[in-house]
Each structure stands twice: as structure tokens, then as C-alpha cells.
UniProtKB/TrEMBL annotation:
It is a multi-pass membrane protein. Its main location: membrane. This is Olfactory receptor. The gene is LOC103205762. Residues 45-291 form the G-protein coupled receptors family 1 profile domain. Keywords: Cell membrane, G-protein coupled receptor, Membrane, Olfaction, Receptor, Sensory transduction, Transducer, Transmembrane, Transmembrane helix. One of its GO terms (molecular function) is olfactory receptor activity. CDD domains: 7tmA_OR4E-like. It comes from Orycteropus afer afer.
């Protein structure tokens, strides 16, 4: 009897209302233009990186294999939320169905958690490359790279299934207003018509601890790298520092959001929307900018690719 009642309560909510980033129409138009530009540049920049890495055989190394995965994830991660937000800008109600909300939560956490694990793997890759250069190709052979790729994609999938299942198992009988422009577990859980303390603890222990643990591992790995760089020649040290600085910038921006949002109970702060907007729209764009502008190998390969395309067009 209780299970039937719970099912009936859950089915009462068929749609959620998204508040969006602003209720002011002029502000919404400005946000639409900015997010559209960011999204188009994100697609172009990350797609170019993936194509360049696939095209240039000199970039067929573990580092660029992981970088191509990062660019692909950024494309997917941005696509989960931004297109929907752009469409909702022109809608007054901003409705999203229960199923569409659940789908958005699943893929948002899939790509976000996969990227966290990937950034950790990339830190390990840099550690081996800088601290154990003679053993690098033995330790980071292609078999290991594939196993690591399967590992971080599988880890992201398991995490996403757990987060989505925990969120959907709650009864939703109203209210139905999400104070954001996309569905995420902490915002949706607050709308459940039952005690959510246990679910909130699970969210913190799942997403929050994953973010914190990976951040600590990355910081420790780079601390070891910095100590190791003191013994290297200046040119090698400069190139290694440049690569590590780019990686740390991405890690700080990405994991900073995850720690801020998921390491506390489901309480809203005024800064949440700004941080989430930066996380979903700006960070995926910064990755190609940081890695392309600071990486000579990628820039040379990209120039070579564009040069050949221009020659073919002239012929």
C-alpha cells in the first residue's frame, strides 16, 4: 500500500519549471548571445583539437590521446545543458519534462565525473613523463592507455547511474520549480516531498568526495613533479612547467565548481548560478584555448592541417 502511494506521489510531477538565469528580458537576450558564442566556439575549438590529434601522427601519444578524450567530453558536457538553455531563453514557462530532467542529470554527471577521472589520469601521465622519462613508453603503453580510458568512462557511468537512481527514487508531488537553468541532483532533490537528509549525504559522499579526493591526488602529483623539475635543464623545465600550468588551470576551474556545489548540503547560494554557468559554458571553451595557445605541438599540427586544406582549395 505504501509503495503504491509513493508511486502515485511520484507521478504527480510530470514537468519541472526552470527559473533560468534571469527574469529580465533584456538580460536574457544578452545571456543568449553570450552563451551562443561560447557554445559555438566550444564546438569549433574542441572539434579542431580532436581532428588535429587524429590527423597528425606525431600527436599519437598518450598525452594527446587523453587530450582528445577531454575535448570530446567537453563537447558533450556543454551540449547537455547549453542548447536547452538557449531554447528556453525564448520561452516564458521554461518547462522540462520529468524524463528529460532525469536524462539531463544522467548525462551531466556522466561527462562531469568522467572528466574528473580523466584529469586525474592526465596528472599521472605527466608525473610519469616528467619524473620517469626513460620508463614512460613502457609504463604508459597503448594497452595501459586503453585500460585507463575504459576505467574513467566506466567510473563516470557508475557514478552517474547511482546519482540518477538516488534522485529518481524520491517522491515528487510538488513544488516543481527548479532555481536554475538545468536539472541537477541537488536542485531536484530539494523538491522531493520527503526527508532528503540521507540522499544529500549520499550526494556529498559521492560527488563531493570524488572531487576532493581527485583534487588532492592531482595536487600531490604536481607537487612531486615540481620537486623533480628542479633537477632538470632549463629548456625541459620550461616546457614541462608550461604543460603542467595548463593542466592545473583546467583542474582548478573544473574541480573548483564540483567541490563548491557538491561538498555541501542542498542549500542554494546566490553564487550558484554564476558558478554553474561558468562550469557548463565557459570551462569547456577554456580547455581548447589553454591547451592550444600554450602547446607548440598542437599549434604546429593545427597550422599544418589548415595549410594543407588551403592548398587543396587552391588546387
Amino acid at each position: 500500500m505504501e509503495d503504491a502511494l509513493l508511486l502515485n506521489q511520484t507521478s504527480l510531477v510530470t514537468h519541472f519549471h526552470l527559473v533560468g538565469l534571469s527574469a529580465n528580458q533584456k538580460v536574457q537576450m544578452f545571456i543568449f548571445a553570450v552563451f551562443l558564442v561560447f557554445y559555438v566556439l566550444t564546438l569549433i575549438g574542441n572539434t579542431l583539437i580532436v581532428i588535429t590529434i587524429i590527423y597528425d601522427h606525431r600527436l599519437h601519444t598518450p598525452m594527446y590521446f587523453f587530450l582528445s578524450n577531454l575535448s570530446f567530453i567537453d563537447i558533450c558536457h556543454s551540449t547537455v545543458t547549453v542548447p536547452r538553455m538557449l531554447v528556453d531563453t525564448w520561452s516564458e514557462e521554461k518547462l522540462i519534462s520529468f524524463d528529460a530532467c532525469a536524462t539531463q542529470i544522467f548525462f551531466l554527471h556522466l561527462f562531469a565525473c568522467t572528466e574528473i577521472f580523466l584529469l586525474t589520469v592526465m596528472a599521472y601521465d605527466r608525473y610519469v613523463a616528467i619524473c620517469k622519462p626513460l620508463q614512460y613508453m613502457t609504463v604508459m603503453n597503448w594497452k595501459v592507455c586503453v585500460i585507463l580510458a575504459v576505467g574513467f568512462w566506466s567510473g563516470g557511468t557508475i557514478h552517474s547511474i547511482a546519482m540518477t537512481a538516488n534522485t529518481l527514487n524520491l517522491p515528487y508531488c510538488g513544488p516543481d520549480v527548479i532555481d536554475s537553468y538545468f536539472c541537477d541532483a541537488p536542485q531536484v532533490v530539494k523538491l522531493a516531498c520527503t526527508d532528503t537528509h540521507i540522499i544529500e549525504i549520499l550526494i556529498i559522499s559521492n560527488s563531493g568526495l570524488i572531487s576532493m579526493a581527485c583534487f588532492v591526488v592531482i595536487v600531490v602529483s604536481y607537487a612531486v613533479i615540481l620537486v623533480s623539475l628542479r633537477q632538470q635543464f632549463s629548456e625541459g623545465r620550461r616546457k614541462a612547467l608550461s604543460t603542467c600550468a595548463a593542466h592545473l588551470t583546467v583542474v582548478t576551474l573544473f574541480l573548483g565548481h564540483c567541490i563548491f556545489i557538491y561538498s555541501r548540503p542542498s542549500t542554494s547560494f546566490p553564487e550558484d548560478k554564476v558558478v554553474s554557468a561558468f562550469f557548463t559554458a565557459v570551462t569547456p571553451l577554456l580547455n581548447p584555448m589553454i591547451y592550444t595557445l600554450r602547446n607548440e605541438d598542437v599549434k604546429n599540427a593545427l597550422n599544418k592541417l589548415m595549410g594543407r586544406k588551403e592548398k587543396k582549395e587552391e588546387k
